[in-house]
Hints:
22% of the residues lie in helices and 26% in strands. By secondary structure, it is of the alpha+beta class. The strands form 3 sheets. Strands 5, 6, 7, 8, 11, 12, 13, 14 and 15 form a 9-stranded mixed sheet that branches. A hairpin with an 8-residue loop joins β6 and β7. It is elongated and about 70 Å long. Residues 99-100, 103, 181-184, 197 line the site of uracil.
Amino acid sequence: MRLAKYLAHAGVASRRAAERLIAAGRVTAGGVVVDDPARDVGVEDEIAVDGRPVAPEARVVYAVNKPPGVVSTAQDTHGRPTVTTLVPSQARLYPVGRLDADSSGLILLTNDGELAYRLTHPRFEVPRTYIARVDGAPVTAAALRALRDGLTLNDGPTAPAQAGLLAPDLIELTIHEGRKRQVKRMCAAVGHPVIALRRVRFGPLELGALAEGCHRRLTGIEVDRLRAATGAED
Length: 234
Ligand code: URA
């Protein structure tokens, strides 16, 4: 890992501030000053700042049941509550992907940048399942078929999806693309604007009985399963 990133992961400073520490000659590897923020380092390099050893922050993943009204960015320019404030952790957590402010349900927070990248990049096709309460019920078989087969949105065609009905106005939809407001746009395109949207599954992970506003740390096995869902081997 690049030295500046390593320091940031270790919770020493932000990536930028870490670069400044490096430029100031305050960072050493095995006792020798390192001035290249891009130098590839690991725990074996005995990195220290001002002579004090730094250890990388343990990697953690939390599941959060985001309530509507909470934003899923790390910071909000409009002063709305952010999902990171729902998890009291010393780790530098950031949200894995986005849920609209008015959507609810399962969102992951982690300090593992590589895992977050793999879970959100469309290339890895990690499925997410949503339950949408929609207007214009009952939802027709033709509307479900269109959701399943793929339809054309203003940013292009959608990939085939899984769609089923839980009630006349309740669609369960599984997609693996993660385009902006995709579920709402797909449902609207088949004549059923979304009234309320909840994410209930992310890859192998279920929201389950986690109450709104609550969080839990994932077990090692759950994190391994998430990683495996992206095709990663370790
Ligand atoms: N699709 C949407 O339209 N909104 C979300 O929050 C998530 C998926």
